[in-house]
Design brief:
379 residues, mainly alpha, DNA polymerase, domain 1, hpI Integrase, Chain A, 3 domains, 3-stranded antiparallel β-sheet, 8 strands, flat
């Protein structure tokens, strides 16, 4: 319990002494007894509710805390860390960097989100910036620097899902024929193997078991801070992708013609034998191939992965098989993304509703007409 002591020999005569949740004794002095009493009551109430925090910790600035928070994320992929650092520099620290943690309140966060939206930053960018601040202050609460996280409950505009483009098998062939050699095989691998770009360009010779028409997807290539990084796949899981026989033949020819015998040699590289960068590939190869094939300008490389899902669904593949083939973390991810492509029973259900209504109307007409009267002969 907090105790108030009179200290006449000091300039601040009223001192509140109390113990924090760890048992450490603390003290704070006041000029007036009324102020000391209010503080004592507040401290005791916070201790009882389990909401007491060390006032000195909450004076840490957001900029100082962001550095400590970032160090706790060292286990994440370089691309993810680069995204966090970019959001801190561009959005979080300019607004809150010099503020103490205790001064970041709900209204300030609401106004910050509104300003980001008004600046023209898209819903995805606003959401990512909010996520960074939210993660930082969640840790501050858990570490005892704050009582509550002022970001919790702050809403951002909903983000509409980007429109997916699906190619037909014939359009895939046109694209593969139009693209610069030797990348036609890469187009087929993306469209029929369903690999993510980073997974496809990280495939090595030793991962290709073409006699069994299988490719092991074990790593991914990403770019962060201008450097390329080989690391785990998006889901941190390895998977074995079964590919069609024609693709096994194309890959066998590609390996014999284009790839070194070294088991660790990358299957797809730049003309200089370097790992493929997505940005360079799009600018130097992809856009021209899309135009030459007569396909929509907005077609993305990732749409070939969507194409694989659409082709599998058209052939009657079970959602679980598609999840395994594409390497989704769960079946719910598969259904959330591609559920609208699966055949629906709604047409039959709607037709049944029509029949239910027709029967109800027929019953209603019979009731209005009354019972049928049968006249007996001779009456």
């Amino acid at each position: 319990m907090a105790h108030i002591q009179h200290r006449p020999e000091r300039r601040r005569p009223w001192q509140v002494r109390y113990r924090d949740p760890s048992g450490r004794e603390r003290a704070r002095s006041f000029l007036r007894k009324a102020d000391a009493s209010r503080f004592a009551v507040t401290v005791e109430a916070d201790r009882i509710r389990g909401e007491w925090t060390d006032p000195r910790l909450s004076k840490t600035t957001v900029a100082e805390w962001s550095g400590r928070w970032l160090r706790t994320k060292a286990h994440l992929k370089p691309k993810t860390l680069a995204g966090y650092e970019s959001n801190l520099r561009a959005h979080v620290l300019p607004a809150f960097g010099s503020d103490q943690l205790r001064h970041v309140d709900r209204m300030a966060v609401e106004e910050w989100v509104a300003d980001l939206q008004a600046s023209g930053l898209g819903p995805s960018g606003v959401r990512q910036a909010r996520q960074v601040l939210n993660s930082m202050l969640t840790l501050a609460v858990e570490a005892g620097y704050l009582v509550v996280n002022p970001v919790a409950g702050v809403k951002v505009a909903r983000q509409s899902d980007p429109e997916m483009l699906f190619l037909s098998a014939e359009e895939v062939e046109r694209l593969a024929a139009a693209i610069r050699e030797p990348y036609g095989t890469l187009v087929h691998l993306l469209a029929y193997g369903g690999l993510r770009w980073g997974e496809a360009v990280a495939v090595r010779r030793r991962r290709c078991d073409l006699l069994r028409s299988r490719i092991e997807v074990a790593e991914s290539l990403s770019e962060a801070r201008g450097k390329l990084h080989f690391g785990a796949t998006k889901t941190y899981r390895r998977r074995m992708v079964i590919i069609p026989a024609f693709l096994s033949e194309l890959l066998a020819e590609h390996l014999a013609r284009e790839v070194d015998d070294d088991p660790d040699a990358l299957v797809f590289t730049s003309p200089l034998g370097k790992p493929l960068r997505n940005s360079n590939f799009r600018r130097q190869v992809w856009y021209q191939a899309v135009a030459d094939a007569g396909l929509p300008d907005e077609l993305r490389i990732h749409d070939l992965r969507h194409t694989c899902a659409a082709l599998l669904i058209a052939e009657g593949a079970h959602p679980k098989a598609i999840q395994v083939h594409l390497g989704h973390s769960s079946i719910s991810v598969t259904m959330d993304r591609y559920g609208h492509l699966f055949p629906s029973d709604m047409e039959a259900l709607v037709a049944a509703l029509d029949e239910v209504r027709s029967e109800a109307l027929a019953d209603q007409m019979r009731t209005k007409r009354g019972p049928d009267v049968i006249e007996l002969a001779g009456q």
